[in-house]
Amino acid sequence: MKLPLCASIILCLASNSLAQNAQAVGTLFQVDFTTNNGGGCQYAGQTTMQNNLQDALGLLTVGAQLVTDYGNDVGEARRLLDSFFEVESPPMTAAQLQAIGTAYSRVANWIQNGGAVNNGQETGTPYLFCYHNWLQKYSMKDAALDTAGETYPNIYTGTEMLLNEEQMYITRQKQETTALKGTNAVPYWSSKHKAYIFDRGYVSSANAGACSGPGYLGVTQHSLSPSSITLCPKGLGATANANTPANLATAHYVGRRSVAANPVPKADVPKGTANSNFQQLSALLPSATTFLHEMFHLVLGNDVSYPTVGEVYYLFTGRGVPQVVGLNYEYAVANPESYALAAIAYDYTLANGANADGDRVEFFSGYTTQG
Questions:
Q1: Strand 127-129 vs strand 228-231: parallel, antiparallel, or unpaired?
Q2: Quick one: signal sequence residues (predicted)?
């Protein structure tokens, strides 16, 4: 079935009006480029962050083009979306395609124009942090702080009120522990918001947070107002294995399509499994990837950008758990990484000309293939 040239007015707008400039990063976000303290982004640099933001907008434009090309029966677009947003009986319906196109266009519109985030529920200008040190980790046995950041007395004992004596914090800690499926939630104090947020403890260090450990790239929160994105050094192109302050300087800008594609024939690559002998799409990611991923959470809200199976980050898992390649549409349409990787893949497809046989570079298998 061939869908109409533009499956809906939304998709027409998405494909035709996104190629504009991003707003200034300092306009869209509350961000501090003068220090690395308190979540500051000095090590990343304003120019790099603006470049990442512009690259994210460019990739969203490509994502919109991918959706339009699918509707126009372009083979490369069909194969890619049918792999990363798998439906039981391809091709996708107009409604399914529109849902993908709308997500791309909403995030792009926000980068160009700003406005409310969290699916329209938060109107405050969000924070952009470049490390988790905007939060201070505490335990429930520590003294509670009020909205001025000061301790206050327990009226029954006359001593400092502890977090585990204040019912609202006891309740919130239990709720977050339940949400973390039994992982004990701990309190973190935000000096920016003058309020607590509860999250997993990550590692035992008192300075631990969302960037602790090599696997963490970024996180978006809507629990405190205004919302915030935290990007970790690894999510900003850092080459170091650990997300520690000492490794901040290794973060660097990697532009769109700056890594060369090395395709092999489609018939040579394994189906649905990882093989280090062939170049995977994950080897070609620009430094804007994590920023782009988190902006789906920021703009759309976690309620519609978090699949019921949990977020799926990897092209291949090899562990019998969901992976991006072959991910069911129901999960992929709520999975920011699926959108980001599909756009990056199609960016390479559009930028690389066809070979003598008319074949273009593709990534529907998760690998770089051609012919």
A1: parallel
A2: 1-19
Output the pLDDT for position 243.
Answer: 60
pLDDT of residue 80: 98
Residues 68 and 98 in one domain: yes
In a domain, 91, yes or no: yes
> Which is nearest to 52 in space by CA: 259, 294, 313?
294
Please tell me whether the overall predicted TM-score, pTM, comes out greater than 0.90 for this model. Answer: yes
**What was the pLDDT predicted at 276?**
86
Check: CB of residue 106 under 8 Å from CB of residue 300: yes
Closest CA to 308 of 343, 271, 335, 282: 335
Question: At which of 144, 179, 210 does a domain end?
Answer: 210
Statement to judge: residues 201 and 278 lie in one domain: no
Domain count, the chain: 2
Q: What domain range is 319 assigned to?
A: 9-26+54-121+254-351
Residue 154 falls inside a structural domain: yes
74 inside domain: yes
Question: Are residues 22 and 115 part of one domain?
Answer: yes
pLDDT averaged per 10 residues in sequence order, the chain, 371 residues: 43 50 98 95 94 98 98 98 97 98 98 98 97 96 97 96 98 96 95 97 89 87 98 85 64 93 93 86 96 98 94 86 94 98 98 94 97 93
Same-domain pairing of 115 and 142 = no
The reply to whether 72 falls in a domain is: yes
